Amino acid sequence: MAEVGSAALLTALIIAAYVVVAAPLGARTRRPLLVASARNGLLVVAGFMTVAALALALAFLRHDFNIRYVAENSNRAMPWYYGLAALWGGQPGSLLFWAWTLTLFAALAVHLNWRRNSELMPAVMAVLMGIALFFLVLLNFISSPFERLWALSDGRVIGAVLQPPATIPYFPIEGRGLNPLLWDHGMMAHPPMLLLGYMSVSIPYAFAMAALLTGNLSTRWLRATRRWTLMSWGFLTAGNLFGAWWAYHVLGWGGYWGWDPVENAALMPWLVMSAYLHSVIMQEKRGMLKVWNLGLIIVAFNLAIFGTFVVRSGVLSSVHAFAQSSLGPLFFMFLGTALLFSLALLFSRLALLRDERHLDGMLSRESAFLYNNLLLVAIAAATFLGVIFPILTEALRNVKITVGPPYYQQVNGPLLLGLVALMGIGPLLPWRRTALPLLVQVLRVPLVALVITLAGLLAGGVRSPGPLLGFGVAALVLAAHVQEFYTGMRARQRVTGEPALTALVTLTTRNRQRYGGYLVHLGLVLVTVGVVASSFFQVSKAVTLAPGQRVTVGRYTLTYEQLSRRQEPGKNVTFARMAVAKDGRDLGAIRPGKAFYPNFNDQPASEIVIRTTLLEDLYVVLNSWGEDGSASFYVFVNPMVAWLWIGGAGLLVGGLVAW
Questions:
Q1: Residue 598 above 90 pLDDT?
Q2: Whole-prediction pTM value?
Q3: DSSP secondary structure code for residue 87 in this structure
């Protein structure tokens, strides 16, 4: 498999380089056969990349430990599906996944647009294969997933793609296995979704660059990439959502988002793509924000590359990042080159990008889109500053500084609150301009919902500004969107006489972009409720108990009974048995534990117990234990976390409806 995979990667590299040259050369010299050969070359590259990906997958399934990457990231004790997931579990494999899926998406995008947007295709192919070429250089010469193990005569073992002199192939009896934190079903979803999100930003970026290169700056490239943009946004949404869920039920600190540099690197392109999805409507409907939209897609692509750089450079400390490697400077050089090329191209076309209309008033649907964009970009900029600040201080002053959650909460918290509030106001505003009395009239129902919510919270004893504002704004947005759905449904019923449910479904399916967006907004409302409740009302306690002792946290009473051990395939687990009661009612037993894996005894993985209801989660972590049978626990009661996951699912459903 190693020989097949290496040959496929090298062949793909050569043909990708041909496409980068042949596609624009054929367009410039008006030689359609040369452009067609470039298209065929792109399809061949996708085919060879598929061969390479299948070769690595088969190597994992066959336990070919002569391949270094397989030996370092799998063993026979792992279930077969974790073996396949190990494909993206390390650095070389994740780079292969990135490049492989990029070539598949590129082939599909070119096929779908070959006749419709033929004048853009040569430039699109050149840009996409240029991106693929960078990854293929890394895979062939810097970080090959098909590097084999070779034994020297003195007993040392080295890694190389080709056999060095005076060596023989080395076959370890057993592989090392995946990092214990990766032995989780989240491994099947979070990394591939996030990598697909990063990668798929390349498609609208390539079309944007093609539009700039050819001077064809109508809205055709926007229409050609609308669904690709939604797909990229959807993958980024799913990647971040699964990442938060994974962190919540694996890492054992009681939370789901720690503002870690790698988490932030994944969040930033999502924020910018969200801004782009809103502002592109302005260009399609009103001929506005042309330069801004191109700038957003350039920034989104470069943030996707930056996210890949952060994970693979090792320059920032993160539980999610790979160890420091030589790839960091190469990614930084590629990032700089792509950014300079894109911005130079954008500035060279400014004369062709004049807006056809301008804002008529500061209270209008257009202004709401603009404010939405400014807030999303401000959040992304503040997050970017927090990520790069430690890099800058270490480079300039040789001082390592950590930017922690308080910075992000204090800076991004108010911006996020303003963004959510704008989601409730924006959809109710008409285009062009709105008189203030009309604004008050259309906001009457949402404002009543806001007042009722605030009154209820105050009556319930809530005095903290955070939950008052968070829940109040969520109520306003919820009421605004329910009003929009109800108004549209009633208008349709008056015309067609349909039943309410039929009218609502038909309204949504015939206005998918608008009402799919509203469903996304409603999903964000639920996420807001979950985040506010779990952030401000979490109850926690760290406690050490002897067998028979109990602890009360919130309305729960936990009684520690005994410490036991069990053996499972590939791991040994130490766990505590605890009886749980809520308000005196027995809820049964739970067994939080710690799993120890061969070759990773210094990295035990927590087996957390989470009892979930719509109102709250009981979250129990076994931290440590003593020889006398005592054990230490972290116990959390996290309110309404389930609404975060339900809201996240709502985001994805809304994206699918808008598709």
A1: no
A2: 0.94
A3: G
